[in-house]
Amino acid sequence: MRWKPPCAHSAAPVKVLIPSALRSYTERADAEASGDTLAEALADLDRHYPGIRFRMIDEQQRIRPHIRFFVDGVQARDLAQPLSAAGELVIVQALSGG
Predict the structure, then answer these.
(1) Coil, strand or helix: which one is 20?
(2) For residue 49, what are the contacts with CB-CB under 8 A and spacing of at least 6?
(3) Quick one: which of 23, 33, 44, 84 has the fewest CB in 10 Å?
(4) What share of the chain is helix, strand, coil (3-state, %, to 5)?
(5) Domain boundaries, the chain
(6) 76 CB contacts (<8 Å, ≥6 apart)?
């Protein structure tokens, strides 16, 4: 089954802080996304910045191992994590190398 973005909704947008490794999509350090859950917000972010979601979520709809999401300061481990109206979503991407 292929993933399909959810339909548009009227949830209040959350502020999204974008890590530097993903700013090639947004060309800025922050953005806004709407959704009642983390999954919906990421789908909305991908509608505005095509391809960004795939860098964070794999083909099995799981959060990639090097990505962490913090919703209002608390780590979100599930895409079903509810978002608060006008809250904040911080995306953290671990960097590795030798």
Answers:
(1) helix
(2) 25, 26, 31
(3) 84
(4) 20, 30, 50
(5) 14-93
(6) 38, 69, 70
**Beta strand ranges found along the chain (DSSP E):** 13-17, 30-34, 67-71, 74-76, 88-93
Instruction: Of 37, 51, 48, 49, give the one whose Cα is nearest residue 6.
Output: 37
Closest CA to 32 of 22, 47, 21: 47
The residue type found at 86 is: A
Per CATH, which fold does 14-93 belong to?
Ubiquitin-like (UB roll) (3.10.20)
